[in-house]
């Protein structure tokens, strides 16, 4: 407990650690409050790049099947959540650490799950392995996501192509950076908004 708030971990050096797998917007007010009070806060955000789905018999808990999920996460999945809390990008005293992990999701088909999951209910989620991590605690580290070789000004189409991601995800990155005040919207090129680093503006 720090300043009346429950914290996942307090490190020996005083850094506060919050582990959040989704809904970063719900964490925003707590993290900002602590950071404004001078605490260093690290938000750890795990992204599963490979997930095994284990299905159990609902009566016996016997393992019925194991298969690999078709979903593949990457570091840019962070922006699917940050788009609802872009002010956290490059904020003072706030570090984001993205963990790329291999995970196991255990399910049982007991009929209590949602219809689009065919009645499957998630029983547990397990961390199998941490594959790599990347931290962001300055505007330079956040901006390093955009390749230096990319010609200015940027738009979502060229950013998507350079990173090998969808245009929708590229738009989320640029939106978050613009709202965080580390890039600025310049105008439009055709139907695409264009952006540039604030430090490069006249």
Please give a structural write-up.
It is a single chain. By secondary structure, the protein is α/β, with parallel strands linked by helices. The protein has a domain of 51 residues: Arc Repressor Mutant, subunit A, CATH 1.10.10. Helices cover 22% and strands 37% of the residues. The strands form two sheets. Strands 1, 2, 3, 4, 5 and 6 form a six-stranded mixed sheet that branches. The protein has a two-stranded antiparallel sheet with strand order 7-8. Helix 4 crosses helix 5. The longest helix has 14 residues. It is globular and about 60 Å long. The termini are far apart. The mean pLDDT is 89.
Question: Which properties best describe this structure?
Answer:
5 helices, Arc Repressor Mutant, subunit A, 22% helix, 8 strands, 202 residues, globular, alpha/beta
Short description:
The protein is an alpha/beta fold and 202 residues long. The chain contains five helices and eight strands; from the N terminus they run ββαββαββαααββ.
List the helices and strands and how they pair.
Blueprint: E1 9-10, E2 16-19, H1 24-36, E3 41-56, E4 63-68, H2 78-82, E5 94-109, E6 120-136, H3 139-143, H4 156-163, H5 167-180, E7 183-189, E8 192-197
Parallel strand pairs: 2-3, 3-5
Antiparallel strand pairs: 1-2, 3-4, 5-6, 7-8
């Amino acid at each position: 407990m720090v300043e009346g708030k429950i914290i996942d971990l307090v490190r020996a050096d005083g850094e506060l650690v919050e582990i959040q797998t989704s809904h970063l917007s719900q964490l925003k007010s707590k993290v900002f409050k602590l950071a404004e009070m001078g605490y260093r806060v690290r938000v750890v955000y795990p992204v599963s790049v490979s997930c095994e789905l284990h299905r159990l018999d609902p009566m016996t808990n016997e393992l019925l099947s194991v298969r690999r999920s078709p979903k593949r996460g990457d570091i840019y999945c962070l922006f699917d959540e940050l788009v609802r809390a872009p002010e956290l990008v490059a904020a003072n005293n706030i570090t984001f650490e993205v963990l790329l992990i291999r995970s196991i999701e255990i399910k049982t088909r007991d009929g209590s799950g949602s219809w689009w999951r065919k009645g499957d209910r998630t029983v547990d989620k397990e961390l199998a392995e941490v594959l790599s991590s990347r931290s962001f605690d300055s505007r330079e580290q956040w901006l390093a996501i955009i390749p230096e070789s990319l010609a200015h000004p940027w738009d979502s189409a060229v950013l998507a192509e350079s990173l090998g991601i969808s245009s929708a995800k590229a738009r989320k990155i640029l939106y978050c950076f613009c709202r965080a005040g580390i890039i600025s919207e310049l105008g439009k090129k055709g139907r695409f908004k264009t952006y540039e680093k604030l430090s490069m503006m006249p």
